[in-house]
Amino acid sequence: MLALNLPTFDHKTKHVEGKVYIFDSLRRKYVRLSPEEWVRQHIVNLLLTHFAYPKALIRTEGGLELNQTQKRTDVVVFDREGRPFLVVECKAPHVTITQQVIDQVTRYNYIHRAPYLVLSNGLVHYCYSVNHDTSEIKFMDDFPAFT
Questions:
Q1: How far is CA 74 from CA 23, 85, 135, in A?
Q2: Does residue 92 surpass a pLDDT of 90?
Q3: CA 62, CA 51: separation in Å to the nearest integer?
Q4: Cα distances (Å, whole numbers) of residue 109 to 34, 98, 135
Q5: Beta strands 58-66; 29-32: pairing state
Q6: Which residue of 6, 24, 75, 83 sits 20 to 30 Å from the alpha carbon of 57, by its own alpha carbon?
Q7: Could you tell me if residue 63 is inside a domain?
Q8: Has residue 3 been placed in a domain?
């Protein structure tokens, strides 16, 4: 897999019938390794090891219903009261973060109402704070600290 603009970490992989799987410590199982999954696993590692987010409050591949359609959020971090705190949208490294990607995570956050959003393709990361009362979105220099 491609080297990312994220800290490296010790990961476990295995091969099954010619396909590569990576161990997801949150889901406690091996999942198919795709370029997007590679980014997701690095983001989760970053949140756990560099920002000290509690493992129990991070959910990957969570489902949600949007406009009567089932969707999946890549990563949602909850605060200590169980409310969404951060929504992360991961893309494969070859996917450019465009307005369409920003619109996608914004639509997902219409349901979650998290105060923070992150978009990443593993090479470029965009972090935003969201004020749902005023609809104001502000660019942040780094991932939000977990409080």
A1: 16, 14, 23
A2: yes
A3: 21
A4: 24, 17, 12
A5: unpaired
A6: 6
A7: yes
A8: no
